[in-house]
Amino acid sequence: MFDAKSPTRADAVASCPVHAPSDHPKIPAAKVGILLANLGTPDATDYWSMRRYLNEFLSDRRVIDYSPWLWQPLLQLVILSKRPFSSGAAYRSIWNTEANESPLMTITKEQTSAIHDQLHETYGDSVMVDFCMRYGNPSTKSKVQAMVEAGCTRILFFPLYPHYAGATSATACDQFFRALMEEKWQPAARVVQPYFDDPAYIEALAQSIERAYAAKEDKPDVLVCSYHGVPERYLREGDPYHCQCQKTTRLLKERLGWDDTRITTTFQSRFGPEEWLKPYTVDEVARLAEAGKKKIAVCAPAFSADCIETLEEINEEIRESFEEAGGEDFTYIPCLNADEAHIDALCGTIRANLKGWLD
């Protein structure tokens, strides 16, 4: 497994610049850093760990864009006095107790290790692969610093979100650029664009669904593609997330050779009083059960790795909504995680973005 505490495993030996005086400090050999980024995770499930994590997350103006004068008193005095208890319980239900970390952390380490191994075969010590989290640890700032210290004169920043949203991709990039602002000698930087319609990503999704269906004697009546929701207002303000999610479902349907009756798009994880993108997954699965669709499968194409929203919300809360409405057979299809086809797709995207830097 990738060792997050040893970010310089691809380092070459440091040396003095050519023609430099003998007392010139040694500098690491120049290399390209590939910095993967995901949402984040609490360090533990206790109240204070959860509170620190939730405070950082819910104080992000990209996530909650209400006026701080109104939002912060509500957040600090009401929400953060209660929510860490319920969120901690939810995390404990899925926690990787053996490694003492969240599944998202475990999976991100596995993805990083697999991507490192594949890219190292191509580029050798010219690349350094690591990961960071937008919220919690390891922080974006700490990983940018580590890459600069290891000799990365160029960094390819890769938010692991197939679809662009201001509350995911944009805030990850904000944090990356903030970290660069603190570097005396800034590396050159590139950001990987969303890959929601990349053929290799669609193929990896399709293969995971085909495997899940092949394992079922009674095939699901409907596949529910559940995407993380955002306020409906964001769509009107120009966020392309909704359109990109719809396109992923359409491309997946075409790849599987299905008609519209066998697949649908929904949105989950609503938070706050506003209307969010609809239909809401928790309501739609109940409606399907009541309409006679007693066997369904649910996948989460917007998540590159299983996390609290998939392992707890989909596989527990949304499953319960379906079964209480009369549903009989609920199949959750895991995220692509460190699946070989997924790693190949991510590495293909990385190679395309390294052109001109490493060919």
If you had to describe this structure to a student in words, what would you say it looks like?
This protein is of the alpha/beta class and 359 residues long. It has 2 domains: 179 residues, Rossmann fold; 134 residues, 3-Layer(aba) Sandwich (Rossmann fold). The strands form 2 sheets. Strands 2-1-3-4 form a 4-stranded parallel sheet, with helices on both faces. Strand 3, helix 5 and strand 4 form a beta-alpha-beta unit. It is globular and about 80 Å long. The two termini are 27 Å apart.
List low-pLDDT spans: 1-12
Provide the number of structural domains: 2
Count of separate DSSP helical elements: 11
Let me know the largest β-sheet: 4 strands, parallel
Q: Count every beta strand, where a strand is a DSSP E run of 2 or more residues.
A: 8
Q: Describe the global form.
A: globular
Helix and strand content put the structural class at alpha/beta
Helix content: 40-55%
Q: Return Rg in Å.
A: 22 Å
Q: What is the CATH domain class of the largest domain?
A: Alpha Beta
Q: What separation lies between the terminal Cα atoms?
A: 27 Å
Mean pLDDT: 93
Strand order of the largest sheet: 2-1-3-4
SSE succession: EHHHEHEHEHEHHEHEHEH
CATH topology of the largest domain: Rossmann fold
Beta-strand percentage range: 15-25%
CATH architecture of the largest domain: 3-Layer(aba) Sandwich
